[in-house]
Design brief:
The structure holds two protein chains of two kinds. In chain A, β5 and β6 form a beta hairpin. Chain A is globular, with a radius of gyration of 18 Å. Helix content of chain A is 12%, strand content 30%. Chain A has a five-stranded antiparallel beta sheet, covered by helices on one side. By secondary structure, chain A is α+β, with helices and mostly antiparallel strands. Chain A has one domain. Chain A contains two helices and eight strands; from the N terminus they run αββββββαββ. The N and C termini of chain A lie far apart (67 Å). Chain B has a domain of 126 residues: Peroxisomal Thiolase, Chain A, domain 1 (3-Layer(aba) Sandwich), CATH 3.40.47.10. In chain B, 33% of the residues lie in helices and 17% in strands. In chain B, the strands form two sheets. A ten-stranded mixed beta sheet of chain B has the order 3-2-4-7-1-8-12-11-9-10, sandwiched between helices. Chain B has a two-stranded antiparallel sheet with strand order 5-6. In chain B, α5 packs across α10. The relative contact order of chain B is 0.19. The chains are: A alpha+beta, B alpha/beta. Chains A and B meet through α1, β4, β5 and β6 of A and α3, α4 and β5 of B.
Chain lengths: 153, 409
């Protein structure tokens, strides 16, 4: 008697970027993080969006986010999953200077050998700076965060 | 046609007639997904003394279908849950699905549209090892999916922020796991149960800091069903119903990063969303002091920290204080003030599609006196919650042994 039937599902997608995500990802190619801005609420959003969710007005402007920000939430992913950076990896939601919401990315430049010590280095409230890869390809992984006190020199 | 409009224009009292749960385990190799759902549907009808014709509409509780691997499997389950020829609704709000499904069933009866509604569902998450991968697919492909974001890692992000704000330690979280696995010893359906120590929790492997393996629910398979009826149905089928005396439900923005900043509508690390649905729910139920008026709380807590967040946001204690009260035994089933998760909660069994339904069933059973070895004395009011998505969805239900009528303000 067979107890299970094994199947593997592979699906393919081509997700349309649209204007907002397209503008943001094009910005990354130029090593710029572009936030959408609503003049009615004065809020700047990352990730960017077409409409301000507080005023329901269209976000008609773009502002360049600061190159530094503050960690709002962080964790070290010890048990990861396929298709991502191999664990352990640190990730954080960071509110970049001049922006009113936080955006997620990896945090580099912290030794993750001792998890408790590493989490102290990554704790909410920590200042970080944005660091781009040498050759951005228009993807969110073009940049990561790095604690500022960790900056060489 | 038995399901034609028969409402009076006055909101109907709604009561739980009967319910059924299978045991929750990693696998149920003896049945398929739909057969598993059928066990619950048939079980609840048998418990109610009903036949399929007594059920006028069916609500199917089904979360992301890639957990069980058949797209929109509500369709596959139609015959198995005796829904052919009746109105059939599939409900999906992620982990909050089971609670939302109860609310949908409640609304169908309360409105007078149907006299008897069955809420039923099944989960087979144990049939894929890729649950966290499926949960990564709930993130948008442009901004967040490239990160190892999932429910595990998102709750870890919430936990580090919450713990820093309130000085809560990993040991404080571990005490929840110890209490609930002990509670689950009295729950024949629970997936994880047993006497463990804080040291055992602390020694379990780190998954996403500070969430360790024992801070995290299992991947459970199983099924559950609940039958709701109006006053006429209660008269015919149940001498000791649990009345649904209040519901509350709210949804927050998709964006996690909008909920970590001063302009947030609700702070995600505190699960501030829960305070909104609780306020609505308690207002409807006429409850002003939950700590004094509620004897049992069945909270949707797939992670150790999530029970604390809800106890605080629901108003059982002040923000940041639930861990201290845990230490004092306030949430214990024996000698505590409010019995929190006598079933062991979602931490001990998480059949995601129906976990919120299980919370409602376990709460209703306490009111109906049908909780078996878990039964606590003197339960007049019990609450159940459910949380879904990355805390985008929260809902809450109050069950009482007396019907409490309310009017919408």
């Amino acid at each position: 008697m067979r107890h299970v039937m094994h199947q593997e599902l592979t699906l393919h997608y081509d997700y349309a970027l649209g204007e907002v995500a397209g503008t943001f990802l094009d910005g990354l190619r130029q090593k710029k993080i572009l936030a959408s801005h609503c003049s009615a609420s004065k809020l700047s959003y990352l990730p960017p969006r077409a409409f301000c969710e507080r005023t329901f007005e269209r976000c008609e402007g773009w502002v360049e986010a600061g190159a530094e920000g503050i960690i709002e939430a962080s964790t070290i992913v010890v048990r990861g999953f396929e298709g991502k950076r191999p664990p352990p990896v640190a990730i954080a939601f960071v509110r970049l200077d001049g922006v009113d919401s936080a955006i997620a990315n990896y945090v580099d430049g912290v030794d993750l050998a001792d998890l408790d010590e590493a989490m102290r280095r990554l704790a909410p409230g920590t200042r970080v700076r944005v660091e781009f890869v040498d050759r951005p390809e228009g993807r969110i992984t073009d940049f990561s965060f790095r604690p500022i006190d960790n900056q060489p020199g | 046609m038995s399901w034609c409009w028969k409402g009076t224009g006055v909101p109907e009292a709604v009561g739980v007639i009967a319910a059924f749960q299978t045991d929750y385990r990693s696998q149920h190799p003896d049945v398929t997904f739909v057969e598993q759902a059928q066990e619950a549907a048939a079980g609840a009808m048998a418990a109610a003394g009903m036949r399929p014709d007594d059920i006028e509409a069916v609500v199917f509780s089904l979360a992301p279908t890639f957990f069980m691997g058949v797209a929109d499997a509500d369709r596959w389950a139609i015959d198995h849950v005796f829904a052919a020829g009746k109105p059939f609704f599939r409900i999906h709000t992620g982990g909050a699905t089971g609670g939302s499904a109860v609310h949908a069933g409640y609304a169908l009866v309360r409105s007078g549209m149907y006299r008897t509604v069955m809420i039923v569902g099944a989960e087979r998450i144990g049939e894929t090892p890729d649950a966290q991968h499926v949960l990564n697919l709930i993130f948008d492909p442009f901004y967040e999916r490239d990160m190892p974001l999932s429910t595990n890692t998102s709750v870890a992000l919430m936990a580090t922020r919450y713990m820093q704000r309130h000085g809560v330690t990993q040991e404080d979280l571990a005490r929840v796991v110890v209490r609930q696995r002990r509670n689950a010893l009295r729950n024949p359906h629970a997936h994880l149960k047993g006497e463990i120590t804080v040291a055992d929790v602390m020694a379990s492997p780190m998954i996403a800091y500070p969430m360790k393996l024992y801070d995290i629910c299992p991947r459970s398979s199983g099924s559950a069903a609940m039958i709701l009826g109006n006053a006429d149905v209660i008269d015919g089928f149940q001498t000791r119903p649990a009345f649904i005396n209040g519901i509350g439900s709210v949804t927050d923005t998709y964006w996690i990063g909008d909920r970590l900043v001063p302009s947030a509508d609700a702070e995600i690390a505190e699960l501030g969303l829960a305070a909104v649905s609780a306020a609505e729910c308690f207002r409807r139920a006429g409850i002003t002091d939950p700590f004094a008026e509620v004897q049992v709380a069945e909270l949707y807590d797939p992670y150790s920290v999530v029970g604390y967040l809800q106890l605080e946001q629901l108003g059982f204690c002040a923000t940041g204080k639930a861990a201290r009260l845990e230490d004092d035994g306030v949430w214990d089933v024996d000698g505590g003030a409010v019995a929190v998760n006598p079933s062991g909660g979602t931490l001990c069994s998480n059949p995601i599609a129906i976990s919120g339904l299980a919370r409602c069933i376990d709460a209703a059973n306490q009111v109906m006196g049908t909780a078996g070895a878990m039964q606590l004395p003197g339960v007049h009011t019990a609450v159940a919650t459910a949380v879904g998505g990355i805390a985008q969805f929260h809902n809450m239900t109050v069950f009482g042994d007396d019907h409490v009528e309310f009017e919408e303000s």
